[in-house]
Amino acid sequence: MREITGSLFQSLDGVIQAPGGPEEDQTGFRHGGWTFPYFDESLDGPMSRLLGSDYELLLGRRTYEIFAAYWPHNGDQPIGATFNAVRKHVVTSSDRSLDWNNSQRLVGDPVAEVTRLKDSDGPDLLIQGSSLLYPALLPAGLIDRIVLITFPVMLGRGKRWYADDPAAARSWTLIEQAHAPNGVHFASFARGGAVRTGSFATKPPSAEERALRQRQAEGRW
Hints:
alpha/beta, 8 strands, 23% helix
């Protein structure tokens, strides 16, 4: 079975939209290229381990189209050479042609299609961008690893990646992290088990706490 890694450049408030340049997204997002001022060599090691391994790409249609318009013309960059060569699996309901070499369409229910792909033989799968894949794949337990590269900036609005779904609740285990002097944080997490909970309370609840809990339960808070 293949493993799926979701790799995300995110702001402190969870926005992943248009990190690469001001012209990357023409839908009205104001801060395209917000990662550029923070990139330096301090994260070369973990990024090379992430992007230099053996994988195929798993992409949503919008990210695919952004990549397909850029990387075929920038194959002189190491990551461009890799992206151009590997197979690209595109989750899409559009009949727009997929002209980037080694591209194939996943049509139908995303969970069913990605489950079928995950169960097939081949290299592991790497998601880049593709914010709409996460609300579907996370609750289904299909993502095995999440790599978050978090930048010290808040963008206020934009596309976010996480699923607002109770089925997505689970713990994650840190397997690698690195810090850049400029505040960028690289962290890789493996999928864990159920969310564990506990309490810092050292005494029985007071009358005020019990009354508050009752109001909360009744929706009067």
